[in-house]
Amino acid sequence: MVCQNDALVKKVCELYEQISGLESLKPCKDVNMLFTNLVVTCMPPNYPIDVTKLCQSVQDIRSKLIRLCGEAEGLLESHFSSILASFENPIANLNIFPYYSNYIKLSQLEFNILTQHCSRFPTKIAFIGSGPLPLTSIVLAINHLTTTCFDNYDIDPSANSKALSLVSSDPDLSTRMFFHTTDIMNVSSALKDYEVVFLAALVGMDKDEKIRVIDHLAKYMAPGALLMLRSAHGARAFLYPVVDPCDLLGFEVLSVFHPTDEVINSVVLARKYVMPSLEQQDQLSPKILPKKCSKIEAFNPLHHGSMIDELAIEEQLS
């Protein structure tokens, strides 16, 4: 059982106390400094820590910290989305966002993983939890999936309004990017229209919430469609929720990749089972067990063949 005596955990808990004491999480010098320190503390990719083995007090701090990180990330994106909207051409100025290069790398990573498991480029993608600054959708649409349409879902109307203002003046993106203000749990039949569904890291900020969303997608996505999720590994799980392969009932896990650079999120790709009925799907899903993971390799976006930590799946049908 890991508790506050671990040096990294102690540092994270100290930063949590400082962050939770802030009057506001809106971007400013103090907020930026504290969250930068938190990210740097949690970044070592091979730090030997399993957050599931933390003592209860640290588990509670981790849960609260993830929500604080989510709130701060939303406020940061909203702040820069407003700044970008003041430019005549917002899309040409995306690099003013301080973590833009991370999105470039993460989008390259996700695109490379997709191409290893897709026979052709998808014509229609859903991104769930797109937020006020939908950088993943925008970067994928500009750099990789140049003819694909993106349906972006967010529960916050102000986030969608800000996002729409960024792409509305762009002659290409304005015809391929659409924004829907709704809780994804209220979307059912429309999910069958998508060949690929992206689920943002902060949609479902605890295990139960995340699993409810995944189960909903398993019920309504088209058989054979791909689900791309963001997770976290090691100490990085203090920043984002973890998606375990065993959480993906109704899906075949194809790949799990843990970056070792400044890209914080792990990436999980899964395919919805092709089943004649949901009943058969439910009978099969609990029997999908992770078998083993191969050695994790450092992410190099220029390498396509050896970049993924492939998760072998053993199907035990009894």
UniProtKB/TrEMBL annotation:
Catalytic activity annotation: 3 S-adenosyl-L-methionine = nicotianamine + 3 S-methyl-5'-thioadenosine + 3 H(+)
One Gene Ontology term of the molecular function aspect: nicotianamine synthase activity
E.C. code: 2.5.1.43
PROSITE patterns, alphabetized: NAS
Keyword Kinase: no
GO biological process: nicotianamine biosynthetic process
Record bears the keyword S-adenosyl-L-methionine: yes
InterPro entries xref list: Nicotian_synth, SAM-dependent_MTases_sf
Keywords for this protein: S-adenosyl-L-methionine, Transferase
Similarity field: Belongs to the nicotianamine synthase (NAS)-like family.
Purpose: Synthesizes nicotianamine, a polyamine which serves as a sensor for the physiological iron status within the plant, and/or might be involved in the transport of iron.
PANTHER family the record matches: NICOTIANAMINE SYNTHASE 3
Protein name stated in the entry: Nicotianamine synthase
Organism phylogeny: Eukaryota, Viridiplantae, Streptophyta, Embryophyta, Tracheophyta
